Amino acid sequence: MHRQTPKAHCLQEYMNMGSTQAKPCCRCPSDKEIWRSEADLDFCEETLLTLARLYFESFARPESTCWINSLMLAQAHFGPDAGPVIGVRLLNALQAMRFARHSIFSFNSVECPTCSAVLTEHERRLMAVIKATRTGQSGKAQTELMMLCEGADITNPMIAFCDLAAALAEEESQWQGDAHETALF
């Protein structure tokens, strides 16, 4: 289980930022979509989904500063050392996937509380790739990535997602080492 200390508060604050200005919508999952609460994401994966959505918003609206918000949130959640590394590795993985795809990537905005509670089919598959690479399930990650990349070569995206998983594992092992060290004193 991933820590839910002040970092959990940072993510929750970020998720609520636009909610006072955004009007509630009537968004419900379609056949291939699921509620975020049904996605079985741990706190790290919840954060990565939000970071990815911010990057996607920057891709869709290049004039926005959402990519900066993504990096700031990564630093707030993963710390000043690991945060920027994880934020950039996620961006590299998303870019590798985007370059392999032929069609658009469907995502939901973080600004609408109702929309952000739904995972599109593409987001669901993206999170399955991240979860599978984090847990060493290479076959599952490759299958989901092939679907996301629409049958294109997945070599570069797979390398990029494995690099992301390595950075996440390093951050988690550092945190576990810190927790063990703290318990000793």
Automatic annotation (TrEMBL):
Lineage: Bacteria, Pseudomonadati, Pseudomonadota, Alphaproteobacteria, Rhodobacterales
Protein name: Uncharacterized protein
Organism annotation: Yoonia phaeophyticola
